[in-house]
Design a protein that fits this description.
Helix content is about 25%, strand content about 30%. By secondary structure, it is α+β, with helices and mostly antiparallel strands. The protein has two domains: about 160 residues, 2-Layer Sandwich (D-amino Acid Aminotransferase, Chain A, domain 1); about 170 residues, D-amino Acid Aminotransferase, subunit A, domain 2 (D-amino Acid Aminotransferase, Chain A, domain 2). The site of 2-OXO-4-methylpentanoic acid has 6 residues, from loops.
């Protein structure tokens, strides 16, 4: 397949934001997007063209049955160079989501090549201040016009990108998070590990109630016992105990985060004991009182590493690390952001130059 490129004439391009640090996350998009169609059992028509609204049949299956998946990744520009962080892992995870949602997989190398072209095309849009990046949203939707419940035979895959600052308005400062034992996000055997749109829709009501209570996000508990922590709405979660860094295991209900995997790898290299194990909310709540819980943080592409300073659970507040950012949380944030920006020594081979 040959990538077709149709550039927007310079005079019709949008003005770039003046202060990327003040941009609300995910609300500014560049001049171009990548699209590719799936019909007759094959992908075709890959192209980079103007960023524009999609034209969809009102019967398009994604609009009725939620057959849609996406990814989140970032490009960083520092000292005139542009880097992607573990992009192949994101594309492979897209394929894992696709398999679960009975959608077609993409060719990882081909899509990576097209993504690099798009990022190069939008190079001038990539902010270079610390804490800023170009957020990349690969998305696949079912577009066959059909109301019968079965997997679609036609799909649209597209990639949109836009400059972003920090995901949370708090920046790199401790978050207040609500633990929900009222709603659940995912069940074993369901689609929790897949980055499918419905998982996010399922999180919205809990998210609204959390926001009404002054919290940034929900920390979900397992659906059966409502006892073990799973993840927040956009981040995997880590707990630093006295002698251990613990994070919930990948048992099908949580997203296999690439940032999560990177944190585990780095922490192990720092000789920390890292356990992927079930952690109950009581263990965390009690640990905040006894001092056994030293730090709590979230990890995700959009959020990077986000300290959690307070949990609200069953109407009670549990303060972690005195409500401050812990040392390990900060060290991991510094290490990861340096690697992502091409500043650290990339001994893992995670960084791809564009
Ligand atoms: C990401 O971390 O990139 C995500 O996709 C989470 C969220 C913004 C939906």
């Amino acid at each position: 397949m040959n990538l077709k490129v149709e550039l927007v004439p310079p005079v019709r391009r949008k003005p770039k934001p003046k202060d990327p640090l003040k941009l609300p996350f995910g609300s500014t998009f560049t001049d171009h997007m990548f699209t590719m169609r799936y019909r007759n059992s094959e992908w075709s028509d890959p192209q980079i063209g103007p960023y524009q609204p999609l034209s969809l049949d009102p019967a398009a299956m994604c609009l009725h049955y939620g057959q849609g998946i996406f990814e989140g990744m970032k490009a960083y520009r520092r000292a005139g160079k542009v880097y992607l962080f573990r992009p192949r892992d994101n594309i492979m995870r897209l394929n894992d989501s696709a398999k679960r949602m009975v959608m077609p997989e993409v060719d990882v190398d081909f899509v990576l090549g097209c993504l690099k072209e798009l990022v190069k095309t939008e190079r001038d849009w990539i902010p270079d201040l610390p804490g800023t990046s170009l957020y990349i949203r690969p998305t696949m939707i079912a577009v066959e016009p059909k109301l019968g419940v079965r997997a679609s035979l036609e799909y649209l895959f597209y990639i949109i990108v836009g400059p972003v600052g920090p995901y949370f308005p708090e920046g790199f400062n401790p978050l207040k998070i609500m633990v929900s034992d009222k709603y659940v996000r995912a069940v074993r055997g369901g689609v929790g590990f897949s980055k499918t749109m419905g998982n996010y829709a399922a999180s919205l009501l809990g998210g609204k109630e959390a926001s009404d209570a002054g919290c940034s996000q929900v920390l979900w508990l397992d659906a059966i016992e409502r006892k073990y922590v799973e993840e927040t709405s956009t981040m995997n979660v880590f707990v630093k105990f006295d002698k251990e860094l613990a994070t919930p295991p990948l048992d099908g209900t949580i997203l296999p985060g690439i940032t999560r995997h990177s944190v585990i790898r780095i922490a192990k290299d720092w000789n920390l004991t890292v356990n992927e194990r079930r952690v109950s909310i009581d263990e965390i709540a009690d640990g905040t009182k006894s001092g056994k819980v030293k730090e709590l943080f979230g990890a995700g592409t959009a959020a990077t590493i986000a300290p959690i300073g307070e949990l609200l659970y069953q109407g009670k507040s549990y303060v972690v690390s005195g409500g401050k950012t812990g040392d390990l949380t900060r060290r991991l944030y510094d290490e990861l952001t340096a690697l992502q920006c091409g500043e650290g020594k990339d001994k893992y081979g995670w960084v791809v130059s564009v």
